[in-house]
Amino acid sequence: MGIQRIDLLVKQDEDGFNSVRTNRILQSGELLVALPNEQTAKGWENSDWLKEMLLKAEQLNIEIWAWWPVFHDAQMAKQFPKYAYHTNKNEIFVDPSVFTIQQRQEELIRKLLNEYNFKGISLDWTRYNDWQQGIDSSLAKQFFDQEGVVLTKKYLQDEYYRARWYELRASVICYPHTYCCANNFYQPLDFFISFFRT
Fold first, then answer.
1. 64, 6 in Cβ contact below 8 A?
2. Residues with Cβ < 8 Å from 196, sequence gap 6 or more?
């Protein structure tokens, strides 16, 4: 049967990752492939290898999908520090409910799919890191409008409020349908599903 699909990391997933290829430390969100008018991680600027790989994979009937970590992104946190947060492991994320953040991710994904002939894209980290993230954001006001309580960690101990909080966060991440372009074909993309090239 052999290999039928490869998910290829095109945007750094982890913070503080030691790249053997470039002998430097990479942070989440650094681009590992060149995109038009975007900064690529040092040592990854030439993407001829990727074009060659995509061509060879097509000849061998192997699907190559781009693996794209979405909101675990230290680079975007630099661009939008107001919407950045750190985990207790010092990992850096951006608030996935912020429309500006979603738009910027969409812009990068469009560029990726216009530049390279991937068969699809696997979206990773399309969520908050943990259940408390977002309680200091504008989502807390929406929660108050819905539930009539000021959201605190105490309220998140209650199963009912925690479930409503999960629902609210999921709805603001998934609700806005964005459109990604691949081979001049626009197809809706929710942030929680994989994008299939047609």
1. yes
2. 119, 120, 187
